[in-house]
Structure formats: structure tokens, C-alpha cells
Amino acid sequence: MGIPLTTARSTATGSVELVINAQHFSRIVQAGILKAKISVDIQTADFKAMLVPERTTRRAPSIVEHLRRLADRNVEIRLLHAGTPSSAALRELRQKLPQNLTIRRCPRLHAKTVIIDSAAMYLGSANLTGAGLGAKADGKRNFEMGIWTQSSDLIDAVLEQFNTLWEGRHCPTCRRREICPVPLEEPQL
């Protein structure tokens, strides 16, 4: 789990803890995304088919397969990213995009958040990649930092920003439309 912040405060609405480097994998992926029951909302600048080792087998399916499994269990997944997913991620998505997994792209997005069941959230520097979320070996992963919180006030504020982007409220006045001819384009599968 993450390192508690020395200045962390528990409030009536939740706690905040610091997540550093390899801790991202256990906190955000294993204890967060894979345990979702209702919803997963992800904002990431970069989206790759990060391998996620299973605890009970020697297999390491990609995050796409894990998202597909969650969607098949009726977990609603919204993935908002900035660039083109990696070729491996696109290949897997082309197999079949589950009904409960919706992906949109906004080239201006640079935020990194993962919100689980509207009750817990990661907010930090890590993209949805193996190097970002600590799934790579020690000498290959990025140096990342963020917070994990159950603060309903903070989660609500971030969800409001997420929904603003997801619904395209900035699209009519966006000054980068030349690189985004289709507002909130969904991946060409």
C-alpha cells in the first residue's frame, strides 16, 4: 500500500495517502481497478496494453483483458485518453469492445486519474502504462507520485472535471480542433 502522508488528514469525507513508484501497481491496479464493483473512470494521456500478472496463475493478461472481464461483470468503464492506444491495445480492443467499456480521446488531456466506484481515487502523474503504474521491473518503471483518497469532496470535484471533458463541454471553444477534427473521437477499431 501507499505511504501515509506526513501531512495527511483524515476527514469526515475520507483519507489521503501518498503513492510512490512501484506502489502504484498494488494500490491502483490490484486493489483498485481489479476490485471495482460498479464503475471505473480513467483519465490518462497514454494508454498501453500493460501486462497485469494474475495472483493465482502464471498468466499476465493485458489491462485490456482485465477491463473486458470487469465490463462483462457489468462494471461501467469510461476511459478517456489523449493519444492513440498502443498497437497491442488496439489489437485487443478490435477483438471485441465490451458494451460496458467506452473509450474516448481528447488530444488536450494530460490529467491522470483513476476513480473506482465513485468511492476511491488515484490522482497523480502515472499514465495507464506498465512503466507508469509500476508493472515493469524496478530498473524500467517510471518515477511516479500521486495520492490515493476516499475523500468524497475531492472525488466529486475530479468527477465533475472528468464529466466536463467526457461530455465535450470544451469542444465548441477548443483552439486545437485542427488536431481533433472529430470532437471526443472514439477509437477506430
Q: How would you summarize this macromolecular structure in one to three sentences?
A:
With 189 residues, this protein is of the alpha+beta class.
What does this 3D model show about the protein?
The chain has 189 residues and is of the alpha+beta class. The protein is 22% helix and 20% strand. It is built from 4 helices and 8 strands. The protein has an 8-stranded mixed sheet with strand order 1-2-8-7-6-3-4-5, with helices on both faces. Strand 3, helix 2 and strand 4 form a beta-alpha-beta unit. The longest helix has 15 residues. It starts with a strand and ends in a 23-residue tail after the last helix. 35% of the residues are buried. The N terminus is likely disordered.
Write the layout of secondary structure elements.
Blueprint (H helix, E strand, L loop, with lengths): L2 E2 L11 E5 L2 H8 L8 E6 L18 H10 L3 E6 L5 H9 L5 E5 L7 E4 L3 E5 L20 E5 L2 H15 L23
Parallel strand pairs: 3-4, 4-5
Antiparallel strand pairs: 1-2, 2-8, 3-6, 6-7, 7-8
Q: H/E order of the elements? A: EEHEHEHEEEEH
Provide the low-confidence segments as ranges: 2-8
Strand order of the largest sheet: 1-2-8-7-6-3-4-5
* Rg computed from alpha carbons, rounded to a whole number of angstroms: 16 Å
Number of strands: 8
Helical segment tally? 4
Largest sheet: 8 strands, mixed
Proportion in helices: 10-25%
- The secondary structure category is alpha+beta
Strand content: 15-25%
Mean pLDDT: 85
Distance between the termini: 36 Å
- Globally, the shape reads globular
